[in-house]
Structure formats: C-alpha cells, structure tokens
Amino acid sequence: MAYRETAKVRDRKALTEQRILQASHELVAEAGFAALQMNQVAQRAGIATGSLYRYFANKETLAAEVFRQATEIEVDHVRRCLQQADSCALSRLEHALQTFAERALKAPKLAWALIAEPVDPAVDQQRLHYRLQYANLFACAVQQAIDDQLIPQQDPMLSSTAMVGAIAEALIGPLAQQAQDPTHAITHTITQFCVRGLAPFRYSVTGASL
Amino acid sequence: MAYRETAKVRDRKALTEQRILQASHELVAEAGFAALQMNQVAQRAGIATGSLYRYFANKETLAAEVFRQATEIEVDHVRRCLQQADSCALSRLEHALQTFAERALKAPKLAWALIAEPVDPAVDQQRLHYRLQYANLFACAVQQAIDDQLIPQQDPMLSSTAMVGAIAEALIGPLAQQAQDPTHAITHTITQFCVRGLAPFRYSVTGASL
C-alpha cells in the first residue's frame, strides 16, 4: 500500500517536472534565457512558485536543464545526418552542417539563446560541453574522409572545432536579426566555408560553390 | 587651492584604479575570471576591500573592465596586421589570424579566460561586442580581397564571422591543455582552415598547405 502510494507520487512529480520544463522551453524559445523567470515559469506550468523551487533549486539549475534538453535534440539531428550510410563522409558532413544551420534559422530566437545569448556560467559550462560533443561527432567524419583520401591528412579535432566555431559564430548575426532565409544562401555559404576549410583540392578545382 | 586639491585627489584615484586593474589582470592571467575575487584583488592592489568597492561597485563591473582592456590590446594587434600596406589583402588576413592564434598560445590561461571561460553575462556581453569588432576588421580585408579579385564574390561579414568563430573555437582545446606549440602547427592549421574557407581557387590549385 505504501509502495503504490510512492509510485503514484513519483509519476505525478515526473509529470509536473515535464510541465515545468515544457513551460521553460517555451519561454526561452520566445524570448531567450533572459525571459526565464521563476514566477513566469510557475504561472505557465500552472503551479505555485514555491512548488517550482522544490523541483529546481534555482533559476540557474533550471536554465542549465532547459539548455541541455534543447541542445540534445539538435545534437541528435546532427548525429543522424552523420550516420547515413549511403553517402561519402564529406557529403554527410556537409549535410550535417546544413541541417544544423537550417534548423537554427527556422527557430532563430531559440537558436540565438542556445548559441550566443549572454547567460549564467552554469549554462555557459553546458555550452562548452556540447560544442565539444559536436566537434567529436564531426571529427569522426573528418577522420573517415581522411581515411578515404577525400581530404588531406590533418588534425581531425582541430578542423572539427574550427567548423563548430565557424558555423555557430556565422549564425549569430543572422539569428540576432531573426533572418528568415528561404533561399538558404546563408546556410549554403557557411557550409561551404567549413567544407572548403577541410579540403583544398576537392572543392576548389570543381569550385564555384560560393 | 581647492582646485589643486581636487586635481591631486583625481590623480591619486586614477593611480589607484590603475593598480586595481593591474592586480585584477594578473589574477585573471594566472587563473581565469574564477580567480577574480574582490578580497584577493584588494590584497594584491594593496588597498582595503571597502575602498575597492568605491572604484568598482561589484565583481561583474570589474571583470567586464578587465576583459575590455585585455581584449582591446588583442584587437589592436589584429588591426595593425590588417593595416600593413606592403602586402595583399589575403596575406594581411593570414598574418592577422596567425598573430591572434600565436599570441593566444603564448598566454594560454589569459586567452582561455578571454575566449572560453564560463563567465558572468556582463563579460559575455563584452565577448559578443568584441567578436563583432574582430569580424568587422576581417570583413574590410575580405572586401578588399574580393575587389582585388583574389577571392570570389561572397558576403564579407558572413565569412568574417565564420573566421572569428573558427579561430576562437579551435583554440579552446589547445588553450585548455595549455599547449605550448613551438612548431606553430596549431596556428598554421587554423589559419589555413580560415583562409581556404574564403578562397576555393587560389589556395586549392597551389594547394598542399595543410
């Protein structure tokens, strides 16, 4: 009897936590982490502010978790692009970069919050963690492209971190202006910048991709 | 008489402020912004902690000013590289990127603090500001390179922000490991990544620069 009670409470808590995170995600997607205020979150989630603090000790912890969940989704998309078996490593990389940029431009406010908004150090720490995770994913593809002699010998991690930085930083301006880019000129330019950085001979002789 | 008194006080205040900023800079260069504690700053500057607060209302304001001064020095170095009249726009750009990376690797702890350390939003705001300033400087050189037909038509600002991101992000790993790189392999790789990103034909046909 005591056990069933506990399981029920646990389920209800899990649901409430989910509701809190959903409400928080919406606020961030609408107006960045600056809009993540505890009383606003509580109101949108339909709970008392006091109860909210039982789930998340402070705004920083909540922000870090919102960041983590939103970024995991983006990382998953990139990972899936890189796992497609039916194309060469460079095409997969190009597809992954393009997908990352396109998704960002489709949800500019959220992407801006995740990539560039000045945030609490706890969230910044997560940013470093995930940028390293992106770089690790890219580095596998770069290594594969080297093995397949598509690009010359190079430090895969150094090139991959450069790509992560290039794509993130190049998006900041367009995201801040909430650019809608139906022609994909922005994503194409950034992707080509990155891929050409890896491969002096392949992409240059065929060229003309700017 | 009152005027001279005031001038003297003003001079003494300016000197004290300079001593505070010097002490703060040293702490950050030794162990990052995490080491910037008001009591530590006061001790090293040889003043009472209470007096310190008369100069800087809080740690965040002090940190932002330390960041600003240290970054201005780096921006100046990049600017000077880009102003050298005796070389083409692409060579100047290459030189500026190389200089930025070399200086970072020579003072890895300070560079890490300026580029990557999770910091207060006030400092993060400064980071955005200065990264934009770097990008603006690069964009002038990119535009010049386009005008001189050294590289194809492209959005100079988009390419320049990509370069700023690439160089900053690629340095984070080596800086975190406090890599000393006497062979300049790191700076060379990053610089080439950036410059190749701009120029599919120039750097590819002559190629082999990785």
UniProtKB/TrEMBL annotation, chains A, B:
<feature type="domain" description="HTH tetR-type">
    <location>
        <begin position="14"/>
        <end position="74"/>
    </location>
</feature>
<dbReference type="InterPro" id="IPR001647">
    <property type="entry name" value="HTH_TetR"/>
</dbReference>
<dbReference type="Pfam" id="PF00440">
    <property type="entry name" value="TetR_N"/>
</dbReference>
<feature type="DNA-binding region" description="H-T-H motif">
    <location>
        <begin position="37"/>
        <end position="56"/>
    </location>
</feature>
<dbReference type="GO" id="GO:0000976">
    <property type="term" value="F:transcription cis-regulatory region binding"/>
</dbReference>
<dbReference type="InterPro" id="IPR050109">
    <property type="entry name" value="HTH-type_TetR-like_transc_reg"/>
</dbReference>
<protein>
    <submittedName>
        <fullName>TetR/AcrR family transcriptional regulator</fullName>
    </submittedName>
</protein>
<dbReference type="InterPro" id="IPR036271">
    <property type="entry name" value="Tet_transcr_reg_TetR-rel_C_sf"/>
</dbReference>
<dbReference type="GO" id="GO:0003700">
    <property type="term" value="F:DNA-binding transcription factor activity"/>
</dbReference>
<keyword id="KW-0238">DNA-binding</keyword>
<dbReference type="InterPro" id="IPR009057">
    <property type="entry name" value="Homeodomain-like_sf"/>
</dbReference>
